[in-house]
Task: inverse folding
């Protein structure tokens, strides 16, 4: 009898709570640095566009043509970046395309004509876009290892890097530093930072979903009560499918809507207030600044919110904040409502793109390719959003044309379930 007592006590002892292991602290910092440097590299060059325009003697139309090549380069290169990341790893591809990007920006001062500038910007876009894919894939890997929501933070650091890059460009212009000095020096500094940071990247393989996870996810959406033969056929078709998945397309559309909303604000918001409302130029600039500030704040605060309520609920809330913000901005003719509407729009859109990247990273067996696909579709919003609003503005007042953004943003609310947590992770916890 005495030997049974310890067994009963052992059986009744409550199990110790399990705390998720959070290794790879260095990788968290490394990804943060790489996101920040991506923003710096882009903005430090774009902020000097007036000097670049004068350097090549381009007209506004010719410069617009050259700038479109940045988006074209990104959209063309991104699908290949996903495959390369899957094959060679995020460290190699991130460093490779960061090199392509900084070399291209360094060559801008050597352009002697608009066509030469366009070719250089095409390579710059390919480098920036592929670098973007690689760092988002690495971010997804680190999130999975750490059981944390970190992507909004990193995207917020990208925005902060863009602000820093713009300030570098402004200071250089103020001090009379030519683009022939600024662009190569900034590029070298950025490249050294990427080289040092990528050394701490986490390898791809340990966190790739298992075949069991891939098979399970392949028939997650089969309705209850479906005959066994139909389920089996669905499994076989899904297992054999190696192309773009339905989830990637839906996440891409979500990202497209976000990119269009963000791009339309950056391209048209100040113009709409100044030309459509007669507001002073300072008010237009401050309203745009408020939009970007709330974007950054929303991204820095987004991780804990997503960790608490989940991605689907967070995205629905985001869309329901951003869409009314657009309506208030466009329909109520008052200065204070412009600020409130722009702030709501920025706050709502802030977490959408990073959430879509995290969800794409959980598509079974296709982390790199899924993020590349979603990013490519999303970049289409930046590439075609401004011309689309411009076309509508030819048929109606610009503020009325911008109402289309509210309709596009509501797509986020409708398609939010596509971003649900996958791969057996129902909720990623936040850092205490």
Result:
């Amino acid at each position: 009898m005495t030997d049974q007592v310890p067994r009963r006590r052992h059986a009744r002892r409550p199990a110790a709570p399990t705390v998720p292991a959070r290794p790879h602290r260095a990788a968290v910092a490394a990804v943060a640095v790489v996101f920040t440097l991506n923003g710096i590299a882009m903005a430090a060059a774009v902020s000097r566009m007036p000097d670049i325009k004068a350097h090549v003697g381009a007209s506004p139309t010719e410069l617009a043509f050259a700038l479109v090549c940045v988006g074209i380069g990104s959209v063309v290169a991104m699908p290949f970046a996903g495959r390369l990341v899957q094959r060679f790893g995020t460290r190699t591809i991130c460093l490779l395309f960061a090199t392509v990007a900084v070399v291209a920006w360094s060559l801008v001062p050597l352009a002697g004509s608009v066509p030469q500038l366009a070719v250089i910007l095409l390579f710059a876009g390919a480098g920036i876009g592929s670098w973007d894919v690689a760092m988002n894939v690495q971010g997804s890997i680190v999130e999975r290892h750490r059981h944390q929501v970190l992507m909004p933070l990193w995207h917020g650091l990208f925005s902060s890097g863009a602000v820093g890059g713009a300030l570098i460009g402004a200071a250089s212009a103020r001090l009379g530093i030519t683009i022939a000095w600024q662009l190569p020096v900034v590029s070298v500094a950025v490249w050294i930072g990427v080289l040092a940071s990528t050394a701490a990247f986490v390898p791809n393989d340990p966190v790739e979903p298992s075949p069991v996870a891939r098979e399970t996810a392949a028939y997650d959406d089969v309705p209850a009560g479906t005959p066994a033969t139909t389920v089996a056929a669905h499994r076989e078709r899904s297992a054999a499918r190696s192309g773009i998945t339905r989830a990637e397309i839906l996440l891409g559309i979500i990202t497209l809507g976000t990119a269009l909303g963000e791009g339309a604000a950056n391209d048209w918001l100040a113009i709409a207030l100044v030309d459509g409302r007669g507001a002073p130029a300072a008010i237009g600039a401050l309203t745009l600044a408020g939009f970007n500030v709330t974007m950054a704040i929303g991204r820095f605060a987004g991780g804990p919110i997503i960790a608490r309520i989940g991605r689907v609920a967070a995205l629905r809330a985001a869309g329901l904040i951003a869409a009314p913000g657009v309506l208030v901005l466009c329909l109520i003719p008052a200065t204070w409502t412009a600020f409130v509407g722009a702030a709501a729009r920025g706050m709502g859109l802030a977490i959408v793109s990073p959430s879509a990247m995290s969800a794409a990273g959980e598509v079974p067996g296709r982390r790199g390719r899924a993020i590349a696909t979603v990013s490519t579709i999303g970049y289409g919003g930046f590439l075609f959003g401004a011309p689309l609003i411009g076309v509508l503005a030819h048929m109606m007042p610009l503020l009325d044309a911008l109402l289309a953004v509210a309709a596009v943003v509501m797509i986020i609310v409708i398609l939010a379930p596509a971003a649900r947590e996958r791969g057996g992770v129902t909720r990623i916890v936040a850092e205490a």
Residues 114-146 form the longest helix (33 residues). The two ends are 46 Å apart (CA to CA).
